[in-house]
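REQUEST ID: PR-0412
SUBMITTED BY: lab tech R.K.
PRIORITY: routine
TASK: structure prediction, single protein chain
INPUT:
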Amino acid sequence: MLDATVECLHEFGYAGATTTEIARRAGVSRGAQLHHFHRKQDLVVSALEHVFALRLEQFTQAAVELPVGLEARINALTDLLWAAFKGPAFYAWLELVVASRTDAPLREAVRLASENFAQGVHRVFAAMFGLKDVPEYVDDPIEFAIFGLLESLALERALCDSEEEERRRFEPAIAYVKTIANFVARDALRRNGDSIGEVTGR
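STATUS: complete
OUTPUT:
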């Protein structure tokens, strides 16, 4: 049911992701669905938490396999995250964020799930680059440069009409993100008094 919920949010948006369609895709009866989730809000938030947990696990595992050397690591990490930002999980989350603007209970649930995910991502960034454990990712310049820029590009990508338009608009933009992130990372590590070789294994 959780996977079917994410699919429906991605394809139809929050309003169009009806519990009837979700149950049909999941291959369960409405009674079975209501037994586990009494309200649509409970179902979509649980689906969001499920996807966030999977994404964080995949991100953590992939981070271990990133290449050594600061530039190679930054570039590979950017590509890894951009692929995730283009996936259905991001747009399912975006649908819930927009819907929650006028729905206070939903907004609180989405906010908590999003904050927990952001904290998990921050811990991975801190481990990869030997950064201090600051409470918010916006206080971490490397994480902000990569994650923040990619998130803004993913919002723009939602308006693309074709793969060709996406390549034309976003391949250069991703290259800019890598350039900016590499500059920010070197500057941040210098300010922190860290050796780039020590941090990245070069």
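NOTES: The chain has a mean pLDDT of 86.
REVIEWED BY: pending
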